[in-house]
Amino acid sequence: MALSTLRIVWLYPDLLSTYGDRGNLLVLAHRARARGIDVEPMQIRSDQHIPHTADMYLIGGGEDGPQAVAADRLLQDGALSRAAEAGKPILAICAGYQLLGSSFYANGRAYEGLNILDLRSDRGPSRAVGEIAGEAAPQLGIGSITGFENHGGRTHLGEAVQPLARVTAGVGNDGATEGAWAGHVIGTYMHGPGLARNPKLADLLLGWAVGVNPAQLPPLDDTWPERLRYERFQALQTASQ
Amino acid sequence: MSANLTPRAKFATTLLRTAAALSRATGRGDGSVIGGRVGLIVEPRLLELLAEGRHVVLISGTNGKTTTTRFTTAALEAIGRVATNSFGANMPTGHTTALAKAPKAEYAALECDEHYLGQLLDAARPKVVALLNLSRDQLDRAMEVTALAAKWRQTLEASAGQTTIVANADDPLIVWAASVCERVVWVAAGQSWTADSAICPNCGAHLDRFGEFWRCTNCGLNRPSPQWSVAHQGEAVVGPDGRRYELNLQLPGRVNRANAATALAVASLFGVDPAQAAPRLSEVASVAGRYARVERDGRQLRLLLAKNPAGWLESFDMIDPVPPVVLSLNAREVDGFDTSWIYDVDFTSLAGRKVVVTGDRRTDLAVRLEVDGVDFLVVDDIRAAIAAVPPGPVEVVANYTAFQDIRAEFNRVN
Fold it and tell me: Active-site residues (chain A) (predicted)?
């Protein structure tokens, strides 16, 4: 592990931080420090320049108005697009996920997105609120996923991205697939926060950021996150019976 | 008051009381909701008719409604009888029951759910409306918070008329909603949770904050000068003329001193001398179980209800620094099914003390505390939690249904 300090940028908490999004930053920092990796968390407000030199970027969810403002400022800044091109890991949740695509719907109209991921989002027939679960793409090696979703949008994937998971409960993109990934960029509707409930997804991002296979990261005692995952999957099974 | 009720409304009121009494007698609750529902079926205008001729104050906001309503009731009782929904039934059915049960009360202090403010403004024609604060709460089933502020603003503009608003000058969402009204009394009631008002609700630009002051450099929305505030030193409220009203509250925390300031501001609009009202607030020992002290097996528990991130942070500010802490989390329908908000709460202040977690979603809390580096013990229920801590004082923090479960264990303590 060549990095002396892992610099994780959390983008625009002033605009996009609605459902415990800070938790993803906390979980990444916790899991990195537990392996002896120093972490410098950087909270960047929407009136600040985005640093080019960070090792990972996080962006969260929010209401329509702030989502449109965030997309506009990200387009003007340009640093997130350059980070994606440079292969830096990016994790985007919900409204943050939608704005990485070519277009998204907010305030009753379509807005231009960042075009980092080949997808577009529009409005669904109803709001998707509740537990979500799925089987992640096998190439990612993270098994099943669990989270909580709360969004009115539906997302349509293009050919240049893969779905993050096949949905087994909940809605996700469209009831069949959930989230998307390409290169080191991952978008998802899972909050909960997603990384607290999916430690392997957190380690995948950490592995990308420090340049090692996640399987080579020293293992952590995940008794409590594993118990939480078990409970959430059980709750879905009970509900479907 | 009831002397002017139509025969139909009188009949509806009688049925309401009977239904509420039956519900209580059969152990189904305090009967406020079912009673009101029955009364409103018989006479849909019952709430309006029962409110007519009374001096009404509505109290709303995300946190502190029940306590502020209790304080306001105590203050108004200095000059007359007060009808109030003291059981926390804060929707129109509960308001109807509160008024029906107190036909002779010329005053009414009604706690109002945030989503029913407009309906209550129209039905109860309040003399005063107190607006405490707005922050994120049960987002999977309620409105997002800026949208709620916008709805309040519209409602107040349409219906506030001659009503005086007592509003929190420290909360930008409250200021924006209330500033459409002609008569506003501002209270510096504080804001423990600023994350939902980083952005100007009026124009979307960043708010500048320096100490307690805030302003939008783009559109000019700013913190109004408060007439009422909490004293910086000691326990007192400072009134519009600079006079200090000493408090000796049994309820803990800065947030309850702010609730007291709001209650005194409201009471003074009804003609109550704050000097006469302030000592009455000190008589409030607990509010529907909140802040209640109960004892079991040599452990003295203090029960704190906290339903959302702002509430949890406020309770961490209230608790004594030494005793063990029991945290209990549920995610049933009225709590909201989504627990992700616990990541908006900073638990690091609990590090180094004994922390016991319980509730339906104790595992969520365990994962959360591990991330914050706080040692914890997970137990099945409040009995096991009590057994897990040594005799002596214990602080208990729980969200809504978790709190009710604990209250039930202690005979529904008030």
Answer: 94, 191
Domain, as residue range, for B306:
293-409
Q: Convert the pLDDT of each residue in A181-230 to its tens digit.
A: 999 999 999 997 999 999 999 999 999 999 999 999 999 999 999 999 99
Reference B160, options B201, B112, B132, B120; nearest CA is B120
Interchain proximity B371–A23, CB inside 8 Å: yes
Under a CB-based contact definition with an 8 Å cutoff, are residues B50 and B125 in contact?
Answer: no
Q: Which of A30, A49, A52, A94 is catalytic?
A: A94
Residues B348 and B373 sit within 8 Å (Cβ to Cβ): yes
Q: What are B234-290's pLDDT values in tens digits?
A: 899 999 999 999 999 999 989 999 999 999 999 999 999 999 999 999 999 999 889
Residues facing residue B237 across a β-bridge? B230, B245
Contacts of A26 in chain B (CB under 8 A): 343, 371-372
Let me know if residue B15 belongs to a domain. Answer: no
pTM: 0.89
Residues of A in contact with B371 (CB under 8 A): 23, 26-27, 30, 196
Known catalytic residue at A94: yes
Give SS3 for B377: strand
CATH (domain of B137): 3.40.1190.10
What are the C-alpha distances in Å from A89 to residues A92, A204, B116, B265? 10, 9, 45, 53
SS (H, E, C) B111-131: ECCHHHHHHHHHHHCCCEEEE
Instruction: Tell me if B11 is assigned to some domain.
Output: no
The rounded distance, in Å, linking the Cα atoms of A115 and B381 is: 50
Q: Report the CATH number at residue B366.
A: 3.90.190.20
The answer on B326 and B234 residing in a single domain is no
Binding-site residue set of A: 127
The pLDDT tens digits of the residues spanning B3-62 come to 578 888 888 888 888 888 887 777 666 777 888 887 787 778 888 988 999 999 999 999
Closest partner residue to A192 among B204, B206, B340, by Cβ?
B340
Residue from A72, A190, A224 whose CB has the most chain B CBs within 10 Å, to mutate: A224
R_g (Cα) of chain B, nearest Å: 21
